[in-house]
Amino acid sequence: MNDTGSSAQREPTLSVDEADHSSRVRERVVAAIAAAGGWLSFERYMDLILYAPGLGYYSAGARKLGHGGDFTTAPEISALFGACVARQCAELLPRLADASILEIGAGSGTLAADLLERLEDANQLPVRYRILEISADLRARQRELLQRRAPHLLARVEWLDAPPPKPFDGVIVANEVLDALPVTRFRWTGAGAEELGVVQEDGRLLWAPRRASAATAAACAALAAAAGPWDDGYISEFSPRLGAWTAEVTRSLRTGAVLWFDYGLPRTHYYLPERHEGTLLCHFRHRAEPDPFRFPGLQDVTAWVDFTALAQAGTAAGFELAGYTTQTYFLAGTGIDREMQKMAGADGNRFARLANEARQLMMPGEMGERFKAMAWVRGLDGDLCGFVLRDLRHTL
C-alpha cells in the first residue's frame, strides 16, 4: 500500500491492546518456525503476519486506511481517482450485456462508493457490483460507508469470499492489491542465489539465509539476466504467487477488462543493479518502516509490483495486454481536468482543493510516476481511453 508519511516521525508507542496483539502474532510465527525445522521462508512469514485468520494484518480489526490508519490510497486522497476510473468503466460497460463490476480488495469502500455514484450519474450502472474481500472488519466498514453515501445502490452490492463461480461479463478493478502478495526474498552471491528466511533467537525474529531451491535459483537467474549484472550481496524479492493468484481471481471473467493499479516497475527497471536492497517496505501509522519483524500483525508489509511479470500472467491466463501506463497519463486520458471542473462547478476554493489533490495523484514526486495502470482484456476490441496518451507496453 502507498505510504504518504515520513520515516522521520517520532518513535511510535504501542497501546496495551496493540502490544498484546503483536505478541500473539509473534508467538504464532515462532511456532511456525519451530514446525518448519527452525527456518521459515519469508513468503510464509509474510502470509502469516498479513493473512492468518483473526491475527494477520488484513484479517484483524485495526484501522488500516486513511488518516487514522497506516497508509492512504488514491481513493482516500481524492474522489478524482474514482471519477476517472469510473470514466474508464463507463467506456467499457456499454460494450457488454448485463455487465458487472468486481472489485478485488475494496479497502475502506471509498472507491466502490465513488464508482457507483459516478456511474449512476453517467447512466452506466453495472447490474451487480461485487466485492471480493477476505476481511470481515473491512466488509463491515465498506457496508457502513456505502449505506451512508449510496443507500439506494446497496442492493446492487454483493460481498464474496472467493471469485464468482459462474462466468460473467464486465470489469474487474484492483487498486493496491498486488503489492501485498507474499514475496520470496533472495540474496545474490558469487556462489549463486540464497533465499532469505526467518529464524528466532530468544524470541527475536531475524533474517537467515539458506541455499536457494532449484526453482528459486532459476527464477533469480532469469531476473539477473533481464536487468543485471548484480554485485555480490545484491538483495531483492519476487512474487511466486503472482501468476496463479491473478489467474484465479480473474478466471470467471468471460468478456471484459481487468484494471490493475499499483506501484511498481517493468522488470528491467525493478532489478537494476543500483536497487541493491529491493523494494520491501512496511507501513505503520503513516510511517515508513524497513524492518518487517518489528511490529508483526500491526504493520503492512509490501513490495513493488514487477509489471513485466503481471503482463506475462495476463497472457498466460488468456487475456490480451491492452494497456500499460503511469497513473499520471491514465488520469489525464480519462479526463481528470473535466472531472475537476464538474466537481468544483463555480466554487473557486473547491477547485483549488481539487487541484492540490490532483497534484498528489499525478506529480512525479508524489504518486504519478511510481504508480502504474495496466489493462487486460478478453473478447473486447478498441482502445481504452486511460491508455491512449502514453503507451508503455514496449518497456515490459
Keywords:
single chain; 396 residues; alpha/beta; Rossmann fold; eight-stranded mixed sheet; five-stranded antiparallel sheet; 13 helices; disordered N terminus
Named CATH architecture:
3-Layer(aba) Sandwich
H and E order: HEHHHEHEHEEEEEHEHEHEEEEHEHHHE
Looking at the structure, the CATH topology is Rossmann fold
Helix-strand category? alpha/beta
Please write the CATH class name. Answer: Alpha Beta
Which ranges are low-confidence, i.e. pLDDT below 50, for 5 or more consecutive residues? 3-9, 63-70
Number of DSSP strand runs: 16
Number of domains: 1
Cα gyration radius (Å):
21 Å
| Global shape | globular
Distance between the termini: 22 Å
Helix percentage range: 25-40%
Main sheet makeup: 8 strands, mixed
The number of distinct helices, counting runs of at least 4 residues, comes to 13
Strand content: 15-25%
Detailed description of the structure:
There is one protein chain. Residues 3-9 and 63-70 have low confidence and may be disordered. The protein contains 13 helices and 16 strands. The protein has a single domain (1-396), classed as Rossmann fold, CATH 3.40.50. The chain has 396 residues and is an alpha/beta fold. It has helices at residues 16-35, 42-51, 74-77, 79-92, 110-121, 136-149, 214-227, 242-250, 267-270, 307-316, 327-333, 336-344, 348-362; strands at residues 40-41, 100-104, 129-132, 157-160, 168-175, 184-189, 192-201, 204-211, 234-238, 253-265, 281-284, 287-289, 300-302, 305-306, 320-326, 371-378. 48% of the residues are buried.
